[in-house]
Specification:
- This protein is of the alpha+beta class.
- It has seven helices and four strands; from the N terminus they run H-H-E-H-H-E-H-E-H-H-E.
- The radius of gyration is 16 Å and the shape is globular.
- The protein has a four-stranded antiparallel sheet with strand order 2-3-1-4.
Length: 163
C-alpha cells in the first residue's frame, strides 16, 4: 500500500472507530449491517487531510487512495465522490448532508487492519465496536464533517420504569 492509501484507511477507519464505539447492537460481520454505517465525508476536508504534506493533487490522490483500498478489500466497491448534482441519485448520495462528498463503506478486512495497527491482531467486526480506539489527534486531526445517516439510533435500554 502507498502512504496515501495508508493515510486514507487511517482517516476513514478512525472515524468509524469513534462513531461506532460501544455499538454492540450492530452486527458488522453482515453486509446488510455494514451498509448501515456507510459514511459521508465532506470531500474537500477529506482531500485536504489526505494530501497534507504529500504534494499530490486532487483528483489523482483521491482516485489512487480510494480505488487502491477497494482493490485491497479494505473498502466496499460501492463508493462515490463528487457533487450531489453530478452524482444524482447514485447509491443514496441524497442522504449526505454535504454538497460535495465522499461516500464509502467499511469491510471486514478494513476493520481487521485497523486492529492490527492498534496491536489487536485478528480484530473482528464485533470486536471493532468494543475494542477499536481512535488514535491520538496530535499529528493528524480528526475529520469534522462526517455523517452516518443510515446508522440507527441506539436501542433504548429496558430499565426500570417509574410508577
Amino acid at each position: 500500500m502507498s502512504s496515501l492509501q495508508i493515510r486514507a484507511h487511517f482517516l476513514l477507519y478512525r472515524e468509524w472507530a469513534c462513531r461506532l464505539e460501544g455499538r454492540t447492537d450492530l452486527k458488522l460481520g453482515l453486509d446488510t449491517e455494514r451498509r448501515k454505517v456507510k459514511m459521508f465525508v465532506h470531500l474537500q476536508e477529506f482531500v485536504s487531510a489526505l494530501v497534507f504534506g504529500h504534494g499530490v493533487e486532487f483528483p489523482e490522490a483521491l482516485n489512487h487512495s480510494i480505488t487502491g483500498l477497494i482493490r485491497s478489500g479494505l473498502l466496499e466497491d460501492n463508493h462515490a465522490y463528487g457533487t450531489k448534482e453530478t452524482l444524482g441519485t447514485q447509491s443514496g448520495v441524497n442522504d449526505s448532508p454535504y454538497e460535495t462528498l465522499l461516500m464509502v463503506a467499511p469491510t471486514v478486512a478494513g476493520f481487521e487492519l485497523y486492529g492490527w495497527a492498534q496491536g489487536v491482531p485478528g480484530m473482528t467486526p464485533r470486536e471493532f465496536v468494543i475494542s477499536a480506539r481512535p488514535f491520538a489527534e496530535d499529528e493528524i486531526p480528526r475529520l469534522a464533517n462526517v455523517a452516518l445517516p443510515q446508522l440507527p439510533d441506539l436501542p433504548r435500554s429496558e430499565g426500570p420504569t417509574e410508577t
